[in-house]
């Protein structure tokens, strides 16, 4: 008996992606495309942002309050940050090695392509770079929780929510009504996710259509070597590095990627991990990770564990140095690693993260920042791929931390990945 093809969410998003590329290519340079399609894409992104904070807060309260002591939360936090730092360091080193071997910037001249205005990133970098490391960490603790909610400051929100959840847990029976409220809120918000995701294919169509009509494929010619190297590097990291990490955690990376296909395709199409945060959290619970660990690790990873972004930044920094005719010494490249390790965390919440981080980094190794205007035109194409790696890294981190804490249900995970039991995924259709 032949298996009936189901036109599920992944197929719908892929169709939206293809149609968006076609429309953008046909009407390349036509401002009407951006006029009519951009509001549709922006509407979808706003719908997602609308539900992210309520889901993070409610899930984290339920997870932490139901999981236990402050000592356990502190241990999980330390282990999570340690793991993130190790993985992102591997990403930076891989980027540097590949950029040194393949030399993507040799023979490239800034004048050979159209430059894009990056003044907005320069202003953001100036504002962000004035903060010291101490100020960056102090910023994690909010002075006004409601202001943090309004600004969407995820780390500050997580900090307050963890303390609040520990307080609920400490008061015992009196805290149960509050916990029940957040449990109901969490369930209701995941239902809202189901409704919002029905709009995803149209949102993807609009976002891709605008991107292709604005930048086209011509900008890829002069920067093709950089784009190809970034994609190869990200693929190597995704398959080999995450493959090794997955094997250590008892997860087959190919089965894991297949399980996450809907979310990966949506993240690739929109260049935003945020669009799939609620779905990723729910899927990680279904694969055998406890709610408390999932709701803690994944949101923090969105700031501290940007593997794809730091890998790209390492390659882009060397690309710009090579294109400028600057030969970076081993010492300068070690400096680059150290600076990226810090700046990629300290500026993760600001707009245009990758460009802002590169602006802050290039000055420390003596590379002129004007080259960023040259690669800005193809940044969206590379951003799509690095978002996939960022997302995979954070999802996999939930499994690793669950196993490290001795709370991962390996039997459940294996059953789900091998499709040996039905998965109650209302969002999949």
From TrEMBL:
<dbReference type="GO" id="GO:0015293">
    <property type="term" value="F:symporter activity"/>
</dbReference>
<dbReference type="GO" id="GO:0006835">
    <property type="term" value="P:dicarboxylic acid transport"/>
</dbReference>
<keyword id="KW-1133">Transmembrane helix</keyword>
<keyword id="KW-0812">Transmembrane</keyword>
<feature type="transmembrane region" description="Helical">
    <location>
        <begin position="192"/>
        <end position="217"/>
    </location>
</feature>
<feature type="transmembrane region" description="Helical">
    <location>
        <begin position="287"/>
        <end position="304"/>
    </location>
</feature>
<keyword id="KW-1003">Cell membrane</keyword>
<keyword id="KW-0813">Transport</keyword>
<dbReference type="Pfam" id="PF00375">
    <property type="entry name" value="SDF"/>
</dbReference>
<dbReference type="GO" id="GO:0005886">
    <property type="term" value="C:plasma membrane"/>
</dbReference>
<feature type="transmembrane region" description="Helical">
    <location>
        <begin position="81"/>
        <end position="102"/>
    </location>
</feature>
<feature type="transmembrane region" description="Helical">
    <location>
        <begin position="355"/>
        <end position="376"/>
    </location>
</feature>
<keyword id="KW-0472">Membrane</keyword>
<dbReference type="InterPro" id="IPR036458">
    <property type="entry name" value="Na:dicarbo_symporter_sf"/>
</dbReference>
<dbReference type="InterPro" id="IPR001991">
    <property type="entry name" value="Na-dicarboxylate_symporter"/>
</dbReference>
<protein>
    <submittedName>
        <fullName>Cation:dicarboxylase symporter family transporter</fullName>
    </submittedName>
</protein>
<keyword id="KW-0769">Symport</keyword>
<feature type="transmembrane region" description="Helical">
    <location>
        <begin position="48"/>
        <end position="69"/>
    </location>
</feature>
<dbReference type="InterPro" id="IPR018107">
    <property type="entry name" value="Na-dicarboxylate_symporter_CS"/>
</dbReference>
<feature type="transmembrane region" description="Helical">
    <location>
        <begin position="154"/>
        <end position="171"/>
    </location>
</feature>
<feature type="transmembrane region" description="Helical">
    <location>
        <begin position="223"/>
        <end position="245"/>
    </location>
</feature>
